[in-house]
Amino acid sequence: MSSDPEDGDDTPFPDCPTCGEPVAFVVATGPSTGTVEPCGCSLPPALLTPDRED
């Protein structure tokens, strides 16, 4: 599943880099470990940190 609006999917959530499902939130279990929900895939939380332009 993709969150790219050109694909017709209008979800505001990023895709899990492991399985491609939308990620609602990340649970950080340590400085470099975490789980993405609702899919449950394990990955470092920094992989889903959005690039911000403030």
Topology, element by element:
Layout: E1 25-30, E2 33-37
Antiparallel strand pairs: 1-2
Question: Would you kindly provide a brief summary of this structure?
Answer:
The chain is mainly β. It is 0% helix and 20% strand.
SS field, number of helical segments: 0
Strand order of the largest sheet: 1-2
Number of strands: 2
**Gyration radius over CA:** 12 Å
Mean pLDDT: 77
The portion of residues forming beta strands comes to 15-25%
Identify low-pLDDT runs. 1-5
Helix content: under 10%
Q: Give the CA-CA distance, first to last residue.
A: 29 Å
Helical/strand content category: mainly beta
Largest sheet: 2 strands, antiparallel
Query: Oligomeric form of this entry?
Result: single chain
Q: What string gives the helices and strands in order? A: EE
What is the general shape? globular
Q: Which structural traits does this protein have?
A:
54 residues, mainly beta, two-stranded antiparallel ribbon, 20% strand, disordered N terminus
Q: What does the model show?
A:
- This protein is mostly beta strands and 54 residues long.
- It has strands at residues 25-30, 33-37.
- It has a two-stranded antiparallel sheet with strand order 1-2.
